[in-house]
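Students often ask why inverse folding is considered easier than folding. One informal answer: many sequences map to the same fold, so there is more than one right answer. In these notes we will look at a single instance of the problem. The structure comes first.
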């Protein structure tokens, strides 16, 4: 398959993005404290936007005539981030985890962009540009929350 490196990059990005979205969703469900409403809404908006992106990434794989993985087992094989199995993380821990994971996703988006450009799949490189913008915005917001800007 001529486009195998691009399919692989998209597959890793999809699995990692899905794992990231699932972690955000868990945090959305379990956040507590005096700023609960604010953080619950913030995390809700993040996971909804990222959830929608997983479909676009999966469809990009299909446009390359490849099959899309869709099970937890397959995603765990490809994902570059770990799940959070802690039963009760503080919001600070949640945000720091998400900042770290967001960096991983950003790096994968950049790698996928390079592969898409190399393969002249400009529709996919365009998607990567929009995904990068979304993740950079989330990075800015999370860094503002933890006071890193």
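Output (designed amino acids):
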């Amino acid at each position: 398959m001529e486009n195998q490196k691009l399919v692989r990059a998209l597959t890793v990005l999809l699995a990692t993005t899905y794992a990231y979205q699932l972690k955000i969703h868990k945090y959305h469900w379990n956040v507590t404290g005096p700023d609960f409403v604010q953080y619950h809404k913030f995390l809700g908006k993040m996971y909804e936007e990222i959830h929608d992106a997983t479909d676009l990434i999966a469809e990009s794989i299909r446009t390359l005539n490849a099959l899309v993985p869709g099970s937890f087992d397959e995603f765990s094989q490809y994902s570059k981030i770990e799940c959070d199995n802690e039963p009760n993380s503080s919001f600070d821990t949640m945000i720091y985890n998400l900042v770290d994971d967001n960096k991983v996703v950003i790096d994968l988006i950049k790698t996928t962009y390079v592969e898409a450009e190399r393969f002249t799949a400009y529709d996919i490189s365009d998607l990567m540009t929009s995904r990068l913008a979304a993740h950079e915005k989330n990075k800015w917001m999370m860094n503002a929350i933890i006071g890193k800007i």
